[in-house]
Specification:
The protein is mainly α. It has a domain of about 220 residues: MetI-like fold (Orthogonal Bundle). It has 15 helices and two strands. Strands 1-2 form a two-stranded antiparallel sheet. Helix 4 packs parallel to helix 8, helix 4 runs antiparallel to helix 11 and helix 6 packs across helix 12. It is a multi-pass membrane protein.
Length: about 325
């Protein structure tokens, strides 16, 4: 006896799992308001007027023949690139440029080394000694440039200078020695003055960065066997590297455009022809010689040179941020 074939049982369709509904309301996106941009506009306009207009005026002036006659109303003559062609073919400009770059790099390097060294030393000083050193640095930094130069001129004076007296007492023949006549000794005196006035900024800034170092990080490095040099090289300096880059960038800019120290020392007895830097060269072309168009061209050349010298620092800062 055969049985009838049975049909497979019907499969009920399964419903998709229920998605849990979040009872919390979705946060609203904050509405964009133009208030921040409105608040920034006055500052941007002030910067554009204070920095943008002089720069544009300087660029325009560098393409013109602008001298003493133009100071009394005569319209300037448009020269195009003639001022730049004259300057770039002038051997004296390149001597002044190389002299300025060498002076800038030497001063910036010495300032950074001495400033960082003082900042590291202040971490190990007692409170009273540290306060005494910081007070001296602060006074040196706050002293007006002309007042400081007056003191330094007296120290290196030919007849009554303390430096000549001390060297003579030590056995060297420095009686009546003039430090400003020869370019090498002139720039030695200028370097002493510039570094002396720049070190406090570096020392204070780097010391402030060192005080923010985590003590646990230094203790961990010491437990791992790192000595003082190893902790300095592998822990402290890499941690404060962003601060060092910013301070180094500022020092290069300031030392490249140094003017007052060189100009006052030239007036005290130095030869301007042999000791001009870009700052004093621009001044003597414009104010001294009445060639304002030519001096504007040198100023633009100096601006481009500053950008080229600071480009490695800017790239390192951007890499550090990345």
């Amino acid at each position: 006896m055969s049985s009838a074939p049975t049909s497979p049982p019907a499969v009920r369709p399964t419903s998709p799992p229920a998605v849990p509904v979040d009872p919390r309301p979705r946060p609203r996106r904050p509405r964009r308001t133009p208030l921040p941009y409105v608040l920034v506009v006055p500052s941007v306009l002030a910067l554009a007027l204070a920095l943008g207009y002089p720069l544009v005026r300087q660029v325009v002036l560098s393409f013109q023949d602008f001298g003493l006659a133009q100071q009394f109303g005569q319209p300037p003559e448009w020269l195009g690139l003639e001022n730049y062609r004259t300057l770039l073919t002038d051997p004296y400009l390149w001597r002044v440029t190389l002299r300025s770059i060498a002076f800038c790099l030497v001063n910036a390097a010495l300032t950074m080394l001495i400033g960082v060294g003082l900042a590291l030393a202040m971490r190990h000083m007692s409170r009273s000694v540290r306060l005494l050193l910081q007070t001296g640095l602060l006074l040196a930094w706050a002293m007006p440039v002309v007042a400081a130069l007056t003191v330094w001129q007296w120290l290196f004076d030919t007849q009554y200078g303390v430096v000549n007296y001390l060297l003579t007492q030590l056995g060297a023949d420095y009686t009546g020695h003039s430090w400003l006549l020869r370019p090498l000794s002139f720039f030695f005196v200028a370097t002493v003055i510039v570094v002396w006035m720049s070190v406090p900024f570096v020392a204070f800034t780097v010391y402030a960065a060192l005080t923010q170092l985590p003590a646990e990080l230094l203790e961990a490095a010491e437990i791992d066997g790192a000595g003082p040099v190893g902790r300095l090289r592998h822990v402290m300096l890499p941690t404060i590297l962003p601060v060092l880059l910013v301070v180094g960038l500022l020092q290069v800019i300031w030392d490249l455009r140094v003017f007052t120290q060189i100009y006052v020392l030239q007036k005290a007895g130095g030869s301007a022809q042999d000791t001009n830097l870009l700052g004093t060269y621009i001044y003597r072309l414009g104010i001294g010689g009445g060639e304002f168009g030519m001096s504007a061209a040198v100023a633009i050349f100096m601006l481009v040179l500053t950008v080229l010298l600071t480009a490695p620092y800017v790239r390192a800062m951007l890499r550090q941020e990345g």
